[in-house]
Amino acid sequence: MALSVGVLGYRFMGKAHANALARLPMFFPDAPEVSRDVLVGRDEEALAEAADRLGFERTETDWEAAIEAVDVFYNLGPNHVHAEPSIAALEADVPTFCEKPLAPTLDEAERMAAAAESTDVPAGCAFNYRFVPAIQYAKGLIEAGEIGEIRHVRGRYLQDWLVDPEAEWSWRNDSELAGSGALGDLGSHTIDLARFLVGDTAGEIERLSGHLETFVEERPTGDGETRPVTVDDAYTAQARFENGAVGSFEATRFATGHKNDHTVEIHGSEGSLKFSLERLNELEVLTGDDRGYQTVLVTDESDPYVDHWWPPGHVVGWEHTFVHENYEFLSAVAEGGEFSPSFADGLAAQRVMDTIERSDARGEWVALREGSS
């Protein structure tokens, strides 16, 4: 019997995941059978149009009613609606998949992670870049000791969609709705990738020094008015890992000319790795006696997930990461297994972000701590 899926949210991430659900049976024949059952939102007219376009059988404006009727719940709404519906779904023992960052605040993220801990069903946090084949390949090299002991971890995420001071205000500019700006929206991806790639070898981040900056204090709303910007436009942070490795992270929405430039570098005692989202199928690798970096095209049928797609050398794209992510999550649901990144992983990233914010407020290095802020 097919797993009935309910999805809250139908814009950017709603489209990405609906596309992934539609592609699963075509390319992953061993994936669980899924029905796109119900699409949840507030605007009935827009909701009906989206449901028709994205292939959902029906619509619902009450997320509580949707949760009661489905086997799996996807929370793809804005950050401020992550906590309550996700917790309710988990309390009803409905497997739950939530967009990142897990919540606007650490307190809410802790409540969500506690709800996940109290149930046996999978609870996944949507860090889709873990499922890039080149990232999976990089993790294998690191865990095999190919680059030695981890010394440096560098990550940056650069976009430019807010460079224009006349760009319209949105919920992403409001701390009550988003929690943070570039830090949560972009930095959470970098922080999670750092943990995923080197957490087993370098350990967790121990302490951080962070800086957040807002360049444009208010933005037009489209009706002749303006609203204040209460989140960061950019952040930078320095970090120390448990093994003594150093890290540097940054993200901005003000990097003119950069549309979606997410770059991660890992430097070890025996070699280095470089990855750029703008060259998603490639990994720059330097190991052993190499005199320079080698560009590895991660599209061979032996590479993670690629055997499901095209012949070797035929690249995969950004949207395929969502297919891989959905395959792993729904397989965990069907088999009663565990899924990673979990809500615990989402909470771990949230703790790092909270520490960066506290460091900025205090103007000093701050130790990562367990518990709420």
How would you explain this protein's 3D organization?
With 373 residues, the chain is of the alpha/beta class. It folds into two domains: 3-129, 3-Layer(aba) Sandwich (Rossmann fold); 133-279 and 281-316, Dihydrodipicolinate Reductase, domain 2, CATH 3.30.360.10. It is built from ten helices and 17 strands. The protein has helices at 12-27, 44-54, 63-69, 83-91, 106-117, 133-143, 175-178, 182-198, 318-335, 343-362, and strands at residues 3-8, 34-40, 58-60, 72-75, 96-99, 123-126, 150-158, 205-213, 218-220, 226-228, 234-241, 246-252, 261-268, 271-276, 282-287, 294-297, 366-367. A nine-stranded mixed beta sheet has the order 16-15-14-13-7-12-11-8-17. Helix 4 packs parallel to helix 5. The longest helix has 20 residues, at 343-362. The model has no long low-confidence stretch (mean pLDDT 96).
Helicity range of the residues?
25-40%
Q: What is the correct CATH architecture of the largest domain?
A: 2-Layer Sandwich
* Helix and strand pattern: EHEHEHEHEHEHEHHEEEEEEEEEHHE
What is the number of helical segments per DSSP (H or I, 4+ residues)?
Answer: 10
Please tell me what the overall shape is: globular
The share of residues in extended strands comes to: 15-25%
- Sheet with most strands: 9 strands, mixed
Rg from alpha-carbon coordinates? 20 Å
Q: Pairing-aware structural class of the strands and helices?
A: alpha/beta
Low-confidence segments, given as residue ranges, are: none
Query: Residue-averaged pLDDT, rounded?
Result: 96
- Count of beta strands: 17
Give the N-terminus to C-terminus distance in angstroms: 44 Å
Physical arrangement of strands within the biggest beta sheet: 16-15-14-13-7-12-11-8-17
Within CATH, the superfamily of the largest domain carries the name Dihydrodipicolinate Reductase, domain 2
CATH class of the largest domain: Alpha Beta
CATH fold topology of the largest domain:
Dihydrodipicolinate Reductase, domain 2
Number of separate structural domains: 2
